[in-house]
Amino acid sequence: MFSRLNLDARDMTALSGAHTIGMANCMHYSDRVYGTDRDEEINPSFAQTMQQTCQGPSGKAPFDVQTPMRFDNAYYRNLIARRGLLTSDQTLYGDGGLHDNLVEMYSADGEAFARDFAKAMVKMGNVPPPMGMPVEVRLKCSPANY
């Protein structure tokens, strides 16, 4: 799907780094930290800490527990340490392929991450919406304008 939009593995890996800021609702990470989606590769102390934040449907946790309000490359260091909050995040690291190399590079070089993220965001911004989809400019991302 990404390649049809002129986005490659490097773009996808860099764009995933947006998860260095923001929060996820418990329902999106509970399977990973409690067990049904949990693999033995998750950091056990991280899983335990995230279980404590997942108390009921309103529980939230930061994607990046070290620097949750700073746009930096800590997200990639978390993946290497098996502390990816979402299963979809953690799948970027650990299969020995191209994504592993990119995660390792971004974890060590924040400037390379920032540069690639900016390039990928420009490419993503040039992707047109699907035909017939209503388009709106939001002043706040969460609520729709209509």
UniProtKB/TrEMBL annotation:
Keyword Calcium: yes
Ranges where the Plant heme peroxidase family profile domain occurs: 1-145
TM annotation in the entry: none
Catalytic activity: 2 a phenolic donor + H2O2 = 2 a phenolic radical donor + 2 H2O
Ranges in coiled-coil conformation: none
InterPro entries the record matches: Haem_peroxidase, Haem_peroxidase_sf, Peroxidase_pln, Peroxidases_heam-ligand_BS
Keywords noted in UniProt: Calcium, Disulfide bond, Glycoprotein, Heme, Hydrogen peroxide, Iron, Metal-binding, Oxidoreductase, Peroxidase
Domain of life: Eukaryota
Cofactors that this protein relies on: Ca(2+); heme b
EC number per UniProt: 1.11.1.7
Gene3D superfamilies: 1.10.520.10, Peroxidase, domain 2
Cofactor notes: Binds 2 calcium ions per subunit.
Residues annotated as binding Ca(2+): T20, D64, T67, D72
Residues bound to heme b: H19
The protein's enzyme class: oxidoreductase
Biological process (GO), any one: response to oxidative stress
Cystine pairings recorded for this chain: C26-C54
Kinase is among the record's keywords: no
GO terms of molecular function: heme binding; lactoperoxidase activity; metal ion binding
Family that this chain belongs to: Belongs to the peroxidase family. Ascorbate peroxidase subfamily.
Name of this chain's protein: peroxidase
Organism: Aegilops tauschii subsp. strangulata (Goatgrass)
